[in-house]
Amino acid sequence: MQYCAHALSQAGIESAHQEASLLLQHVTDQSLTTLLCNLQLPLSPVESALLDTYLARRLQREPLQYILGHAIFRGRRFSVDARVLIPRPETELLVECVHRLSAQSICGCDPLHLIDVGTGSGVIAVTRACEIAGSRTLALDISREALRVAQENARRHAVTHQVAFAQGDLVSMIGITTDAVIANLPYVRTDDRSLLAPEIANHEPWHALDGGTDGLSVVRRLCEEAPRVLKPGGYLLLEVGAAQAEDVMRTLWRAERWEHVKSEADLSGIQRVITARLVASPD
After folding, report:
1. Is 80 exceeded by the pLDDT of residue 39?
2. pTM for this structure?
3. Helices (H), the chain
4. How many degrees, rounded to 5, is the angle at CA 223 between CA 218 and CA 229?
5. What domain range is 52 assigned to?
6. Within a domain: residue 79?
7. Domain assignment present for 74
8. Is the residue at 78 inside a domain?
9. SS3 of 181, please?
10. Angle at 15 between CA 96 and CA 62, to 5 degrees
11. What CATH number corresponds to the domain at position 223?
């Protein structure tokens, strides 16, 4: 493990010892406790070859989650690969906001019906299904390949009866109305790609990150389209990037279709989630 950790550290990778441990656990199919008890035992030729392959990929700055084939989100394991973004911890705030909204609205009735726009690996829709019994979510993505990953995750967590999937560009093709639209859309400024870590800039799908000149082109489109599919009094919940919350809220205020527009900060103090309620009528 020391050799692996040293190589990762020399490449400038943070948490080198932790990553080395995870790679070894993956190669040997052992728990951390078992691995630590067996550190003096040599790897088999197959295990050694696998470790060399995985280490070479990580030294090329391929994300560790893609090498392992999974990421952890709210304590659950989700399949991920280069077809989808890796779930971020800050997206847990969006899930918590959705849960709060559902808790306020159930009151003896059926849980809210939601549309998850840009579902990617499906972590929002699948997590909601796992944590709110009887919930129903329609998960949308423009990428057919991303939807395959999301469907795999729904099967992994046995919630295929609670999550439906469809391919489409935002909600333009939806012919139903819903209680809430939730979305974690691309919000990176196009010119900021060179500022991103190589794991992100060179390996994660750029179409799922690129938000245009100011990072908000896709978000603004959804703000325009969402009223078409929301019931009166329905909610829009959006994850946004640093220093973007005020711009998004102004967009919603100017439309004069929304009320109770507010933002909520994540653990880093960034105003991360925007919530807005569609007024009963444009008047």
Report:
1. no
2. 0.91
3. 2-10, 16-28, 32-37, 45-59, 64-68, 91-106, 123-131, 144-156, 198-201, 217-225, 245-255
4. 115
5. 2-60
6. no
7. no
8. no
9. strand
10. 85
11. 3.40.50.150
